Amino acid sequence: MIVLENVTKVYKMGALEVPALKGVSLRVEEGEFVAIMGASGSGKTTLMNLVGCLDVPSSGRYVLDGVDIATLNDDQLAAIRNRKIGFVFQSFNLIPRSSALHNVEMPLIYAGRVAQRRERAFAALEAVGLGERARHQPTELSGGQQQRVAIARALVTDPAILLADEPTGNLDSESSQDIMRLLSELNRQGRTIVLITHEPDIASWARRTVRLRDGLVVSDETRPPQPGAAA
């Protein structure tokens, strides 16, 4: 599903070139749950931006579902993001004065999907356990509930891949565990999940952990989840 071959990313700052990725090769199969770990500056967020088609490699090759991303124009990349990929961010990125339901509807509005839009958004909220909070604004929800709304928004277009960038970074430990249980359940239902984190206990929920250091993959390990993660 996701294939990166010797991918590099270099940012230019005037005459200065800053390499963020230095030749990353990675393959993620359909239905996997993969955690990408690394310290600040390791390249993990750059990698997620590339996988999410928010950016393009400086060199190397990225193939998503058999399509070479380098062959797509901006409109085609936007269509790929909207149809195939759901994004969950650390800061939730919800519209403050809009209801949870309207926040979840937004990807469908951007895509011009009118038919049954509200019904699909409500179904997504119910899938994350927040159907009864559909009319509440983000300020009326806890941090964990706001992240669930963000996950519902990511799911409403029925993407094949869910990309989660530090999804528990702004949450307390109990809410973090709730979110990871939800992501694990979505993975059991067949969703491919790529999780960016620097926290070992969060990464341990994934079946596979890829570690980055200084723009390079330094380890790639597959293992059973910890007992708590399977609960």
CATH topology: Rossmann fold
Order of helices and strands: EEEHEEHEHHHEHEHEEH
Count up the helices: 8
Strand order of the largest sheet: 6-7-8-3-9-10
Beta strand %: 25-35%
Compact overview of the structure:
The protein has about 230 residues and is an alpha/beta fold. Helix content is about 35%, strand content about 30%.
Task: Describe the overall structure.
- The protein contains 8 helices and 10 strands.
- With 231 residues, it is of the alpha/beta class.
- The chain has one domain: P-loop containing nucleotide triphosphate hydrolases (Rossmann fold), CATH 3.40.50.
- The strands form 2 sheets. The protein has a 6-stranded mixed beta sheet with strand order 6-7-8-3-9-10, sandwiched between helices.
- Strand 7, helix 6 (173-188) and strand 8 form a beta-alpha-beta unit.
Considering the chains and any ligands shown, give keywords for the structure.
Rossmann fold; globular; single chain; 231 residues
In terms of topology, how is this protein built?
Layout (H helix, E strand, L loop, with lengths): L1 E12 L2 E13 L4 E5 L6 H8 L7 E6 L2 E2 L5 H11 E5 L10 H11 L6 H11 L15 H13 L5 E5 L7 H16 L3 E6 L2 H4 L4 E6 L2 E7 L4 H4 L1
Parallel strand pairs: 3-8, 3-9, 6-7, 7-8
Antiparallel strand pairs: 1-2, 1-4, 4-5, 9-10
